[in-house]
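To whoever is on call:

I kicked off a structure prediction for a single chain this morning and the downstream step that reads the tokens threw a length-mismatch warning. I double-checked the sequence; it's 428 residues and nothing unusual in it as far as I can see. Pasting both halves so you can look.
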Amino acid sequence: MQKKLKVVTLGCSKNTVDTEHLLAQLPADAFAIVEDDQPVDSLLLNTCGFIGDAKEESIEAILAAVEEKKQGRAGEVVVFGCLSQRYLAELPVEIPEVDAWFGARDLAPVLRHLGVEPGRLTARRIARHQGYAYLKISEGCDRRCSYCAIPFIRGAHRSVPMEDLVAEAESLAAQGVRELILIAQDTTYYGLDLYKRRALGELLERLSALPGIEWIRIHYSYPADFPEDVLAAMADNPKVCRYLDIPLQHIADGMLERMHRHVDGAWTRALIKRLRAEVPGVALRTTMIVGHPGETEEEFAELLDFVREARFERLGAFTYSEEEGTWGAEHLKDDVPEDVKRERLDRLMAVQRDISLECNRARVGTEVRVMVDDFVNGNAICRSEFESPEVDGEILLQNPAPELRVGDMVRVRIVAAEEYDLIGEQIR
């Protein structure tokens, strides 16, 4: 008889990949995967413990799962992922109603708890039909940025062997995936542990040779020592999107030093200039932190000037959150008041809104190939190579052809622009 199992995934796309690996290991004749609110034998939570808001969300989800168990709607509650990895000693004491706790670095114990002997994690079970999927090319991180808890949650950097990634990508393509989004804590670090060299460029070449894969997108690239062959692939390989997610965090030399970023402002400016010169038309996404310990008004003003100068097509920003165990929490005083952090965040995002609108207006009248992600109120929600799902704006395709389906790729003319989204019409 099949056991009913449900997995609730919180946090980033890396957790989504872990969940999909776990689901692919479960024999179909032994487990029925539930996605609605019906009662289940096992309720699993894949948690996030990166920053304060994410930890709070995970705790609330665990308590809700415990309540489901009390009401007889879940036979057991199993928790794994980053939050439980980070607080594996404390959480079982605080929430004893949870039946089993596991960390984030290995799915094997979770599978064995469910009575399944784990195999190689080269297959994925996509939760719903979509044209894209994330491909996690490495785990952990060897860098020690002052604000980041990932190294002691996820451990040291470990690249996934290239052969396993190719096999996983083939599995995804067989399920209808046409876009691979490469993710890691630092994608440019890929291969240094296994092959003693940066191998992201070679990986791009091998993945782009797979039938069915149309786009390959790169996320989370560290600015230091950016690989030259990756720039060449973005410029010359039609399957590699002219898009790069490269979190910079700040531009002021003093801030970059306190953050332990191992680059300075001059290096960062030169890198952005080189990216735009060597990959014409590239769309750059970055992330900034405001209110990090020691950030002065002058340093923040320099950040604003840099954003105006660099004109990032996409930019996200966060206020500094002190995380126990990090270098910043142990050695720096969180000395920027919360209201100042919020005010700086608002000022930064106001600058970016204007830039985003100007960039979008410049695209009106252009033609672009898009992928259909969803349908809402008769319109198709689409993206081009210049937009990543879940984090960037969308292209709203009005009056799409009735035969269009999720995952299809069509040509679109951009006819109107908003601050973050675009309006398009299908070219027929």
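Update from on-call: the warning came from a stale cache, not from the record. Cleared it. Sanity check on the structure: The domain at 3-113 is CATH 3.40.50.12160 (Rossmann fold).
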